[in-house]
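Subject: sequence -> structure tokens, single chain

Hey, anyone have a minute? Need the predicted structure for the following. Not urgent.
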Amino acid sequence: FFFFQAEDGIRDVERSRGLGDVYKRQMAIYEFSVLINDKECEGKLMEKEKAETIYSDAIAAGNVSSVLTYHQNNSSLLRQLLGNLMPNMKAIITIKGVKKLAFEGNCWNLAIPFAYSPSPSVLPSSAIWNLTGTIDSTSKLSNITFEYAKAKTVLNKNKTEATITFNEKIDAIPANTCNLRFCTASTNQPVARFQKSKEFDHYAGLLTFVPTTNDLKEANMISGEYIFFLDTSGSMSGDKIETAREALIIFLKSLPHDSMFNVYFFESSFYSIFPSSVAYTEENIAKAITEVGKACASGGTHLWEPLDTCYKTPLNSKYSRCFFILTDGQVCRSSECIQLVKNNQATCRVFTIGIGNADKKFLEDMALAGNGSSEFLPRIENEEMLASKIIVLLGQAARPGLVNVKINWPKDITILQETKPGLIIFGQPFMALV
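Reply:
Had a minute. Here:
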């Protein structure tokens, strides 16, 4: 028996593959199988508790069994158990998923994680790292790069399909991630994909494209209002609060001179440096830096309350609002915080900065809900490295966007359900589901 855990956004009882899964989670596992000797067994989708019970019963009965779930302490990781594998048995495990690619520097980026692979001490001396990837595009591919020089790339005649291979003896699997980047000729052209339901007589459609400022004929550019939320709860004590203070001070020193800003400190309660956002002046920046330098860690982690207070503050039509949240992610009412951010994504973008051993899944989900991005500072770094990461986030926050967007789908189709477009950011992939 082989089973894997249910996940959000599933459209099909048997398999979780679907456009809805990609839109909601960014990553969806849609197939899991194990080949033992010559017998292949395909996974069945069910709730986690039921799957683990069946797995335990099968193991107790002496049968070979496997279960695939999300890790209990980190939902961005998969956890697999394979039990009762006898000597000389050969098992080949296949896990298939679909993921939305990141878009950086006008190129698509596939980050292949290796941070949780075996360490050099447990690798056999003759370990071979075998990687094969295929890029299939509707338009011409260019600028294909893989971070390892020995990788080979082969393009077909029309340059719409590329195969990347790497097969070398290695001493250690690369740490962190390995990035595969490529560009396509039709990046800025709208593309619609449709998938028919296996259960009902209807389709799901996904519209995607990357808008650029070249598409604008006229635009009134406005300045930014930057509101920072600094976690000063007890879990931020020690190096975490020191890193957070240093990062926030660099943020304040790097703000555009025509911007407005404010800083909130939150733990069991919250307060702000100024009653409302103030203009960027030397006096205001100096006062803010002094207050940030005094921040210390104590109390609980109540983020929802200051977020809700700020969202209720009237918007200034001359400024686009962005939130920057510096925290380790161990917050109360985390799911409610994400929903609050999602409900206000059309009027305010949210960027998250994970401090120390942060809850990566929560912070990434919050940034995704707020049309922003996330950065992580696992330890105190030198000022130059901190500044480079902060400048990137500020640059993303300064990108122009469009609000009050409406999509006119063909009149000859009946719309059962569709997602609201929300805020469209130039240079950032846009997705609409119907």
